[in-house]
Amino acid sequence: MQTDLVAQAEPKQSIIHTRYGFITVIGVLLILTILSAGAAVSFGQVDIPVSQSYRILLHHITGIQIGDIQELTSGSFVDIIWKIRFPRVLMALFIGAGLTLCGTIMQAAVQNPLADPYILGISSGASLGATFAILIGFGSMGLLGQTGVAFWAFAGAVGASLLVLILASAGGKMTSVKLVLAGMVINALCTAFANFIVYFANNAEGIKTVTFWTMGSLAAASWDKLPLISIAVVLAIFFFLMQFRVLNAMLLGDEAAVTLGIHLGAFRKAYMIITALITGVMVASCGMIGFVGLIIPHLVRGLVGSDHRRLLPASILFGAIFLIWTDVIARTVVPNVELPIGIITALIGAPMFMYMLIKKGYAFGGKS
Amino acid sequence: MNLSVDHLSVSFADANIVKDVSLKVRNKQFVGLIGPNGCGKSTLLKSIYKVIKPQQGDVFLSEMNLMKSSPRIVAQKLGVVGQFNELSFDFTVREMVAMGRTPHKGMLETDNQEDASIVSGALRKVNLEGHAARSYNSLSGGEKQRVILARVLAQQPEFMILDEPTNHLDIKYQLQILNIVKKLDIGILAALHDLTLAAEYCDYLYVMKKGQVAASGKPEDILTKELIGQVFDVACETYRNPVTGALGIAYLEAQ
Q1: What is the ipTM score, two decimals?
Q2: Which of A122, B62, B117, B127 is the most exposed place for a label (fewest CB within 10 A)?
Q3: Which chain A residues have a beta carbon less than 8 Å from that of B157?
């Protein structure tokens, strides 16, 4: 009787649910990440044969020499690949991994499936900072101007998220609903200030820069920008991989978590601050890249389930691959034009979200 | 394990919800906590299991002062079956139950063979073995409540608190859950709604009204028509159930 019922009921579980299956998934994703990073450098304004890209990268990273040494060290493609495209691909890899990580953590911390890395007012705070720097601040002072925008964007992002955290804990306990609402309030406020600046700015070029900035781009990637981002993201990944039990308990709610021996309050605050800092660093260097942190965690949950022990590694790799390839599309889809990557992530992300909405078996947060 | 609550008081803003309550659960007793809605029994339980901080009073589980111990240490000894709730993110039944091992595990420690067999055992006890791979949110209310119970069983507590776990459940599931818990042979403190079920399962009862203990004693001694009338504002007659011989209550009229 019982087993009949089980068989009849549609088993709405993740696609992969065995240990073996999970290890396979991680293995495949790892290989895909490495292959993608190698292949992605071939695409751009100048197409370079994939085999040659791989040989050049391999030679630069490990010193292994396959083929003509001349071609590997001083050919015309070497500079394009090693100095321009590879740092950019690595940047896409780390930003993709970081955004997905932050999205997953935020969704757990506020127990809301609509949360993304920017939920704490980070997007509007960073926009306000960048708008200020570009239109009022040091935007026109060459090199200083560039660091200025990044710095102000970071300051805006972190400032806004601290305000959200303070606002959400005012008047007693911080709840996830208060967090989401506080995020909306700060967003509205920062957007209003930013619009105010834009409205009175008599600077068409600056306004275009602001617009481009809010749509996100990896064009500014370079070797000297990589260490900060990569170290920040990798440290955060290791930290949160160790927190899988707390993250899982978070999804059960505050009361159940306490009865399992975890007092969520302090953890939630710490997670938010860490996530805000990481997102701030990412936003400062590449603007806002939407949809990645929102959609990839959902997609991967459908694949391996909600247990963070599996969800985190799988979604981080998935996010990295996703952003590497969206960046390839951004710089190749229209000849001689570099599209803001935010447009591509939204164009790919929105239909994917729609498909998940329509497809049975994944209920986001609600009960289907 | 003995639980003793000493002079516990809880207030929110300026309302005193629990006023100087003391109670005891002696070795492996099944003790019930009954009282009308808003009498403070849930608040009392929540402050015992550390969700609410009481203004005054102490709670001891044998030698351990629960108020001064970390949630993790407490969770290794004390299991709490609350009411099930919908989750924002879905887990499989097995994953849910495996979370009961959380207080026994270090940050980086993964679940081993022993944990797996504890989880399977807990699923077997609540009769949900066949559902291990199902998604929790797709289960019925009675099944969800049994998953929560299994999670607490996997915690291997030495004392258990039931915070009205049988509310909203069909009588079959209420009986199932109480039977499973009764068989555990550990100390239990349970807030219950149904007076006849409380009389049947509990060794001892505390009756709360307006934040205070109005009466306590063996069920057959204190569940009189006078007490029920006074505490619950309902006129009733009590009788021996002719089939089971247990205490029966016939409700007549709300006062």
Answers
A1: 0.88
A2: B117
A3: none
